[in-house]
Amino acid sequence: MTETAAGWLSPEELSLMRERLPILYVDAVPVRADDNGVVTHVGLLLRIGADGTVSRALVSGRVLYGERVRDALLRHLEKDLGPVALPRVPLSPQPFTIAEYFPTPGVTPYHDPRQHAVSLAYIVPVAGDCAPRQDALDLEWFTPEEAASPIVQQEMTGGQGTLLKQALAHVGQIV
After folding, report:
1. Superkingdom, according to UniProt (predicted)?
2. What is the tens place of the pLDDT at every residue in 50-89?
């Protein structure tokens, strides 16, 4: 069935677009911070991929045509973390980095076999109760040290482990 809401593409249209042009995405690293603004925990989703593999993942998704980046961030955070996660997205969010995913492995640290995607990556503090939704099986909170560990990094695919380490470095949690 084709979605008729503005900004949505049918699966066939999306596949065709993915073959022809880069698609804009947002990646969000949900964090808990103490009263001094120091990151104490990082939230990682547990997902089952299209190939049946289980992996850890960041909140991620497409920006729709006509959608503000801030609105896309909020939509994907609510979709993955639930309606009472209470994300604190600034009025004018600034990404900590831009990740460029390629279908060919090795061009950058980021790989998506489906497409060439450009993702604006954000660190987003959340203050509420998080409950995974949609295709997320679970959400687990890790200390920054645990999140940067080889064990957790091996559970992440497509370069998201690299993106997570960049986020932790950006907030001064790893060197």
Report:
1. Bacteria
2. 778 899 999 999 999 999 999 999 999 999 999 999 999 9
- Closest alpha carbon to 157 in 29, 47, 28: 47
- CA–chain centroid gap for 22, Å, is 17
Question: In 92-107, which positions are buried (b, 16+ CB within 10 angstroms) versus exposed (e)?
Answer: ebebbbebebbeeeee
| 82-114 pLDDT, tens digit each | 999 999 998 899 999 999 999 999 999 999 999
What pTM, to 2 d.p., does this model score? 0.89
- For the chain, what's the residue count? 175
